[in-house]
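Chapter review: from sequence to fold.
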Amino acid sequence: MPNNKQRLDDALNQLDRELKSRDRKQKTRPLGVVVAAAVVIIALVGGIWFLATRDSEEETQAQETSTAPSTTEVPEAKPLAGKRTTPLEDNVKCEYTETGDASRDVPPPKGTDVSTKGTVKVNFATKQGDIEMELDRSLAPCTVNAITDIISAKYYDDTVCHRMTDGGIFVLQCGDPTGKGNGGPGFQFANEYPTDETDEADLQNPAIYPKGSIAMANAGADTNGSQFFINYKDSELPPNYTYFGNLTEKGQKTVDAIAAKGVKDGQPDGEPAEEVRISKATVKN
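The token string follows.
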């Protein structure tokens, strides 16, 4: 790339050529035109010198910028509080949108006047023991409303928890009657806590879903259906998954025993080493 001296030499040579050309034509042009032309040429040279100098400075700055170490820091993941910053109204309206084929026939829940108060205890009976949970309406009323409706419709009975992950995140995923991870109830609904309290710019920043928390699995924003995952240890994830309840002490004991057996064939992700089949799901209160 030309340096400043080369740029200036080129500019002066161009000026010399322009002056000689104009000198030959001077006798046939009014004096004012000649003077004006000279002014334009001098301005041109000045401009070239300025640009040459500025370009050089910008190149130096660009090089300095490109070689400077990055100061961008990945935000430290913090545990989700499990409590809304601003409480919801006493009742909310929930929308359940029909989508695709249902893995099992189940009617969409009613979404009018859904309570945001209190908790509801549910249980998933397995051979390894009861996976008991306490679902929190104040965090995710539409999710709790959907899950309890699905349970009452016997949607989860005789289904397997098809996936376990042991590395980076620590989850047991359940809720698909097909056992393949792509089944659903034929309707979907929007994300709730913590997604609806998180700025869009922060949705990819990590958060910690604490041990024992229950969250909805999804295929993207607002595609919640029937699948959920249990965090059997703290799991670092973006806050794009609706946190709607926690294991009870009894439920945690069962899940700890399941997790201790690991993933099938010792893999970091796959089916649980020992099948986790939900024989019956019930709403306890």
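Two observations follow directly from the output. Residues 52 and 251 are 72 Å apart (CA to CA). The radius of gyration is 34 Å.
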